[in-house]
Structures are given as C-alpha cells and as structure tokens.
Amino acid sequence: MDYSLMISSVIVFVENRLEERLDYRKLEAEIGFSAVHIRQVFARHTGMPLARYLRCRQIAHAAFDLIHTREKALDIGAKYGFPNPDSFTRAFRRVTGLAPQEFRNRRCAVGRIKLCAGVYGVGIIEKMGE
Fold first, then answer.
1. For 32-63, how does the pLDDT look when each residue is reduced to its tens digit (9 = 90+)?
2. pTM for the structure as a whole
3. How far is Cα 9 from Cα 36, in angstroms, rounded to an integer?
4. Which residues, 6 or more positions from 79, have their beta carbon under 8 angstroms from its beta carbon?
5. Does 4-126 carry CATH code 1.10.10.60?
6. Among 10, 37, 35, 11, which residue's Cα sits nearest to residue 24?
7. Where are the domains of the chain?
8. Is residue 61 a contact partner of residue 55, using CB atoms and an 8 Å limit?
9. I need a surface site. Which of 59, 66, 95, 113 has the fewest CB within 10 A?
C-alpha cells in the first residue's frame, strides 16, 4: 500500500502545530487512522519515530528563531515546548551538535528545505565549521 499521502498529511499536521503539544486524538481525526498505526507507518517509511521527527522539527524552528530574531534562547525553548533550559540545550545539541547560543554565535545557515513532496519548511542547511 502507498502511504505517501498519509506521511505527507502527518508532516503537514506536525508542521502546523510545532508550538503545541502533539494531540494524538486530533491527529487520528485528521489522518483517519489510529495513532498506533500512524506512528508505525511513519517510522517504517521515514526511518524515524514520529516523536523524534517532531523534536527535530521543533529544533529546526528554534534554530531559525535563534538566527533571525533577538529572542532569548530560554524563551525560544519554551515556545517549542521545552520545560526548562537544560532540556532545550540537550535536545538542541543532540540535533545540531551545538548549544543554542553557540549556534547563534556561529550564524549557522537556516532556511527553506523540502520536507516531502510539495511541502517545504524551515531547516538547518549547514552548521558552520563542518
């Protein structure tokens, strides 16, 4: 079965709600499958669990905010659902290899990337010094 439409729909759903806690009931209602099935299909076809994909997208948007705004890193982390500065820093470093302030100071490239067929979003293009 071709699940590309489901994957695209999940990506759009997530992308439109990055500043919210993921509501699996809303996801089920919008996609038309159970959350368990959606998570299994998403992981099998993308090679990444849905929860990790969500965190990576939140970090990409946080990285964009770090580069293109003067907001404090603490406020940016809170905006994307990180309960405290340490959890934001750990997650940010896991995805980018850099702490948020280091990422900002290096002015790493953040711009538009293709997420799936016909869907584009913010993404980390390159980390300076790599």
1. 999 999 999 999 999 999 999 999 999 999 99
2. 0.91
3. 16
4. 19, 62, 65, 71
5. yes
6. 35
7. 4-126
8. no
9. 113
